[in-house]
Amino acid sequence: MYHKTSSHATEFISHEEIVNTLSYAKANCNNRVLIQEILEKARSCNGLSHREAAVLLECTDKELIASIYELAKNIKQHFYGNRIVMFAPLYLSNYCINSCVYCPYHIKNQTITRKKLTQDDIRKEVMALQDMGHKRLAIEAGEDPKNNPIEYILESIQTIYDIKHKNGAIRRVNVNIAATTVENYRKLHKAGIGTYILFQETYHKENYERLHPHGPKSDYAYHTEAMDRAMQGDIDDVGIGVLFGLNTYRYDFVGLLMHAEHLEATYGVGPHTISVPRICPADDIHVSDFKNAISDEIFQKIVAVLRISVPYTGMIVSTRESQQVREKVLELGVSQLSGGSRTSVGGYVHKETLNENSSQFDISDHRSLDEIVAWLIRLGYIPSFCTACYREGRTGDRFMSLVKTGQIANCCTPNALITLQEFLEYYASEATRKSGYEFIRAQTEQIPHPAIRKKTIEYLQSITQGERDFRF
Ligand code: SF4
Ligand code: SF4
Fold this sequence. Notes:
Layout: H1 9-12, H2 15-27, H3 32-42, H4 50-58, H5 62-80, E1 83-93, H6 119-132, E2 136-141, H7 150-162, E3 164-165, E4 168-169, E5 172-176, H8 182-190, E6 196-197, H9 205-211, H10 220-224, H11 226-232, E7 238-241, H12 249-267, E8 273-275, H13 296-309, E9 314-317, H14 323-332, E10 336-338, H15 369-379, E11 382-384, H16 388-391, H17 396-404, H18 409-426, H19 430-445, H20 450-464
Parallel strand pairs: 1-2, 1-10, 1-11, 2-5, 6-7, 7-8, 8-9, 9-10
Antiparallel strand pairs: 3-4
């Protein structure tokens, strides 16, 4: 029985409701009148239900798909402007007691090099990240109560926030660790984390259990209800996602939207971010073993329909995707990118030899952060190192109301410009700096609100005189 605000995973992610939704979408995929009505509703920027979104995803009419893409682009611009938030993953440990068949960190993998960073290693990694210009990290660790207990994660967060190196500081630490207890979520909240991120992998219970044969993660309900426990533990910014390719994309797309609807209906706060990773090659993982792997075209359609269905959410794409694919999905709704990433444990300091491999997945976009910043500027996006909302207490429902009323863009754009200016001053190459200064000047002139424009110009000037860390 489908029950949106139920505390039971199998009720708020009802298999029956997903199957009925998919039949409804299939039956209406050529219903131009209905699709036009759904698009009209989406134009009001209040989002769509999972049923409406499923119809759009199923649509094959080229003209209507072009309208979906156009709308996704406009909605993203309306909510967030043209800023793209930059972050980097930091792998703390690849010890894991789970058996996820799609991840090389699974317990039975004998070929991967197991590593865990000491606090001293973390300091070195973070300094390397700070030297690149990063301000926002997502820490990652496998599930292993012996090697990676919550105390280790909390100590690592503290270490990261404490490092003040040259002109840098990490200003926001997001956390991607296994589903845990309310008590542990409360500890993470007290440690000052930004977003708690946990991917569902797939919402299809039967396939989920097949893909996770052993270990604590094999408990579908415990994993699916993790965000509820996080909210009960006072974490109000949570990030959801599925690993597209593990199961049929249509099913997981609907499940993802139902999860967002559940969080919003139950806690008044939908997901802060949605990530859209696709299965990709890694140590003992071959994409060809996954018959549900999706094409670039489907991937783009998923991004666009998610953007118009959950307009308030941040959407994240990692370096799993190539430059070409990232360029396309930026246009369709992605608002956060990782850059200069290493997916191995200790990879920012230590280049692994041919006999070593501790990576979780192979990277497709190998460009440096400076190259990515220059590329975004060329495309007309403002690379942003902003972490203002979390530091100003704009989280949870407070953040959501600012996004939904379209006010957050008044903060995002100037914050993007002043944090980009900091990046240019301290970390950029000469060529990036030159194009960046011109770009900032042109973008500042376009800030519509005179008082915000004036303040932005003042902050930009102060940064050139050695001051930093301004925010709206
Ligand atoms: Fe462990 Fe996470 Fe990899 Fe599963 S996906 S094996 S839980 S690190
Ligand atoms: Fe993100 Fe808030 Fe900064 Fe906008 S102002 S980029 S929403 S932290």
